[in-house]
Every structure is written in structure tokens, then in C-alpha cells.
Write a structure and sequence with these properties.
Helix content is about 55%, strand content about 10%. The protein is mainly alpha-helical. The protein has one domain. A two-stranded antiparallel sheet has the order 1-2. A hairpin with a 6-residue loop joins β1 and β2. The longest helix has 18 residues. It is flat, with a radius of gyration of 15 Å. It starts with a helix and ends in an 11-residue tail after the last helix. About 0% of the residues are buried. The model has no long low-confidence stretch (mean pLDDT about 90).
């Protein structure tokens, strides 16, 4: 468990990580992890509704 100060620091760093821009492998455009998470959720919803194949996002580290 984190104390209050550690929790604030953790979430501040987590937000920075989610909002860090990088080039998307598939599109070549600048994006963030937050946008990728949303896009993947939308793709998964489409897959479930249309029974189409789901292709996950892969990030090279």
C-alpha cells in the first residue's frame, strides 16, 4: 500500500507515461498510450459486434 505522498507521485508518473507521445507502428502518426487504449477498446467492440478478426496493438520497447 502507498501512503498519500507516494500515491500522488505514482499517479503523476503514470499520467506522464500514458500521455507521452510516440510514433504509432501501424499508422506512423504521433499518438499516446491513452489514445491507443481507447482505439483498442473500439476495435475489440467492433470485433465482438461484427465477428471480424481482432488485431492487437504491439509496441516495440
Amino acid at each position: 500500500y502507498f501512503n498519500r505522498d507516494a500515491m500522488k507521485r505514482y499517479f503523476a508518473e503514470y499520467e506522464k507515461h500514458l500521455n507521452r507521445e510516440f510514433n504509432h507502428n501501424e499508422t506512423g502518426t504521433k499518438t499516446t498510450l491513452r489514445k491507443c487504449f481507447r482505439h483498442q477498446a473500439e476495435k475489440l467492440a467492433g470485433t465482438l459486434q461484427d465477428n471480424s478478426p481482432y488485431v492487437p496493438f504491439k509496441m516495440e520497447i
